[in-house]
UniProtKB/TrEMBL annotation:
The lineage of its organism: Bacteria, Bacillati, Actinomycetota, Actinomycetes, Propionibacteriales. It is found in: Cell membrane. One of its GO terms (molecular function) is ATP hydrolysis activity. It comes from Aeromicrobium yanjiei. It comes from the Bacteria. It is a multi-pass membrane protein. SUPFAM superfamilies: ABC transporter transmembrane region, P-loop containing nucleoside triphosphate hydrolases. This is ATP-binding cassette domain-containing protein.
């Protein structure tokens, strides 16, 4: 068994422009909250420079021997500004939370909703870890940025603007001296940004690959242990984890070197301001208090400028996360179809081809018509393309070429909700959702009352075991609830089909559990689900095909025979060989 990790066709990542457009769309409906947030942060920034100005006045008052009342007033102003700063800081955080948190929650729901409506093949190609990391790690990263980075960014911007304005208000020459540090900061940024952005993009991707390795290993744990190959999965998890760690360490090293350049910029700027202040005081151009205030102003800029530059670390990382979320949210949706199948619709597949890989076609030139109420069994050896044909007929996979129509309804072009109203797919792998038995049933029909639910359970042979549950319909099933056997889970899925009442049902080996106890009940449940409807049955056993109205025999992605059981057996072709081998 090879330990080479599969190559995934990851879901798209949005461009910077599309990400910005999506971010604006998220908050533009909350303009009042956004305005209150920005205003509050500005007040906090303004309140922050007032104490520094007052310190300069105190220095001049002491040096000039002024009345103590000057000092008292300065202290009072500092206290008031501190209180105002605290009040508006609290208000700014509350306003930010009420503005952005709901937008982020909506984005997460949009991403999850879009992911759930993607074609199964697209999800499988990307890997489940890609989706898990986006709706998990990426959203968590954005949430942390909203809690920490965004407030720090706005606070720092306000502090820099007001403090720089204060420097120029003291004396334009002191302001120019402070600006002398800008080239150093610019050089530090120009060195850092081009190097760090690719790191963060790779880090988000590596986190997704690590999640995929972990999820795949956990889901396949029993099979891997059965074949003694669990070390292969562990090795892949270790390798993906190490790759993620190596990227994180690389980011930290880069971040540390950026910090050294920041410290050098601060030294240059403070030295220029102190030198300018000394010369201006010597020439009596400014007071000692003004020079002191200028030095304190620039020193006060250390934290906000450092935060602004270092916040790029978080901004770029969260920007990469937002771009990955936007990439899923912005995947084009199919337009909602207003077309209906019409009366007595046939299901028609015409010229259908499909390939999961460009150079390997799974289905070739499939032409198939299924009349209303006709039951067609699809048989063939493993790899013949039966499951792919069933999935295309059910509208869960879009064919590479060809058309799939249910009467007047184009299943390829129609939106997911429209397709699901008319076509249902039940596969061998069904899921019992954590919740009550009632919750699992009303997924198919939200307005179903208890009478309809029991009727569906009765027709699929599920009523005896459902009545035996401690709280019957209100019994918790699935994870942490009453366990259902695989056959019971299949019966539950077939009961949902009856509640949905579609025109076409595709059963993809949905009665594979018929080899276990309860075989007859599961077979009867399947017959009840397809009674009076068009049906495609991907047959697990040829005995299932024997009672079908028509049998379609597939081989290497093509339909090689069609007919009734008796016709195909007597013709001595591919089906006859399969039947002879199975019967013996």
């Amino acid at each position: 068994m090879s330990t080479q990790a599969p190559t995934h066709d990851l879901l798209p990542v949005a461009s910077a422009r599309d990400t910005a457009v999506l971010a604006w769309r998220m908050v533009r409906g909350r303009a009042a909250g956004l305005a209150l947030t920005i205003t509050s942060f500005l007040v906090v920034g303004l309140a922050g420079i007032i104490p520094v100005l007052m310190i300069g006045r105190v220095v001049d008052a002491v040096r000039d021997g002024s009345d103590a009342s000057v000092i008292h007033r300065a202290v009072a102003v500092m206290v008031v500004s501190g209180i105002l700063g605290g009040v508006f800081a609290t208000l700014s955080m509350a306003a930010l939370a009420h503005t952005v948190a709901p937008a982020l929650a909506q984005l997460r729901e949009d991403v999850l909703d879009r992911a759930l409506h993607l074609e199964t093949a697209r999800i499988e190609a990307a890997g489940i870890g890609d989706i898990v990391s986006r709706v998990g790690d990426d959203v968590r990263h954005l949430t942390r940025a909203l809690d920490e980075a965004i407030p720090l960014l706005i606070n720092s911007l306000a502090a820099v603007v007001f403090t720089a304005g204060g420097l120029f208000a003291l004396d334009w020459r002191l302001g120019l001296a402070g600006l002398g540090a800008i080239p150093c900061y610019v050089f530090a940024l120009r060195w850092y940004l081009p190097r760090s952005a690719p790191f963060y993009a790779r880090q988000r991707t590596a986190d997704g690959e690590r999640a995929d390795a972990l999820v795949t290993g956990v889901h396949g744990a029993s099979t891997l242990r059965a074949f003694g190959r669990e070390h292969d999965a562990l090795e892949r998890i270790d390798r993906r984890s190490q790759e993620a760690v190596d990227i994180t360490v690389g980011v930290f090293r880069l971040y540390t070197r950026f910090g050294a350049r920041m410290n050098s910029s601060e030294f240059v700027g403070l030295a220029l301001v102190l030198s300018a202040g000394f010369l201006l005081v010597r020439d009596d151009a400014v007071t000692v208090g003004a020079a002191t205030t200028a030095a304190l102003f620039f020193h006060r800029l250390f934290n906000p400028i450092g935060a602004l530059l270092f916040v790029f670390d978080s901004v770029q990382s969260s920007g990469a996360a937002l771009a990955r979320l936007a990439g899923v949210a912005l995947i084009p949706r199919r337009p909602v179809s207003t077309q209906e199948p019409g009366p007595a619709p046939d299901l028609v597949l015409q010229g259908v081809h499909h390939a999961y890989e460009a150079d390997r076609e799974i289905l070739s030139a499939i032409d198939l018509r299924i009349a209303l109420g006709e039951h067609v069994a699809v048989v063939g050896s493993t790899g013949a393309g039966k499951t792919t044909l069933g999935s295309i007929a059910a509208g869960t996979i879009e064919p590479t070429a060809g058309t799939v129509r249910l009467g007047q309804l184009d299943l390829v072009a129609a939106d997911e909700a429209t397709v699901r109203r008319h076509v249902a797919l039940v596969s061998q792998e069904v899921h019992v959702f954590a919740g009550s038995l009632r919750d699992n049933l009303v997924l198919a029909r939200a307005d179903a009352d208890d009478e309809l639910l029991w009727q569906a359970l009765r027709r699929t042979g599920s009523e005896p075991w459902a009545r035996a549950l401690p709280e019957q319909l209100d019994t918790q099933v699935g994870d942490l609830g009453a366990p259902l056997s695989p056959a019971q889970a299949q019966q539950l899925a077939l009961a949902r089909v009856l509640l949905l009442d579609p025109q076409v049902v595709v059963l993809d080996e949905a009665t594979a559990e018929a080899g276990s106890s309860g075989a007859r009940e599961l077979e009867q449940a399947a017959l009840a689900a397809i009674a009076g409807r068009s049906a495609i049955v991907v047959a697990h056993r040829l005995a299932q095909a024997q009672s079908a109205d028509r049998i379609v025999v597939m081989d290497r992605g093509r339909i090689v025979e069609q007919g009734t059981h008796e016709e195909l057996v007597s013709s001595g072709g591919r089906y006859a060989d399969l039947w002879t081998a199975w019967a013996s």
